[in-house]
Amino acid sequence: MGDIIHTLPAATALRQAFPESIIGWVIEERWAELLCTLRTPRSGPRSPQRPLVDKIHTVNTARWRSSLMSNQTWEQVAAGLSELRAPRYQMAVDFQGAVRSALVARWSGASVVYGVAQPRENAASMFYTRQVLARGTHIVEQNFSLAEAIAGRSLPMPKVDFPHEAAAEQESEHRLRDHDIESFAILNPGAGWGAKQWPAERYGYVAKRLAEDGVKSLINFGPGEQDLVRAVEASSGGAAEGIACSLTQLIALTRRARLFIGGDTGPMHLAAALGVPVVGIFGPTNPARNGPFGTKSVILRSPSSATTHARRAQPDEGLLEISSDAVVEAARQLLRSSSG
Q1: Whether the model pTM is above 0.85
Q2: Same domain membership, residue 243 and residue 147
């Protein structure tokens, strides 16, 4: 999710630079709602429901890997490749920098394949026909420099438009009104792996303190995180409430939030892209590269946290040094600045 959101400014800039071009995007099925609402066709004229790309090519690599010996899997792969090649794309761009994304770019049939000279996985560069030296510290800036190399000129950093569905927007309004919620923060206690996960009971404490200021806390969570949500709710004394929603619904809900609090996760990057102030709680990942981009934010990170992407199950020791009161103070600072 974060990789996609970090690519959206670059893709939007390319759309603006080449307004008549047909742009397609290969994306994992579970993240397609970041580009297109559920009830909208995956290809055809662009609209508020699919504002950026002309064609969406979905894949499900996790399911395919789990059933490699299945004839159905290979039929799906073959059908997907055929669909990808049908538009006869002239150029492919690998923004992710992984071997599998570079392979897909090459399999698209495009004669020109762009990628950065030092991709995330070094072997990916073997599949590029043109390599670009990435500029910038943040991954959004690095992706944007790739877009500028393709355009051959400097490009303005654009505003990103996410899919907008009237039904989801109205549902969010009704949901908040039915629960008598006017001012709220989104808490995101989950994380991609344990080393990035700040303790649930501390989120509950933060929710209790924000409630003193009249700010309700809604807990965003994904599949398999029900126990985590219950732990936050229990420690919040009723100040926090879990809220399950689709990606389209999460986009609509996040637009209305006064604040987002969480670690280095996709929902944090979504909040930043929507201009919502963010309290970023960082441990092993580097906020200079992966922090909230383009919005008001306060980043909390202990000097003892070493930058690593090792997927350890236990919370980073430096992450645990970030106190609940420090997060509360950061939240209040952002709430004051946004209301002033």
Answers
A1: yes
A2: no
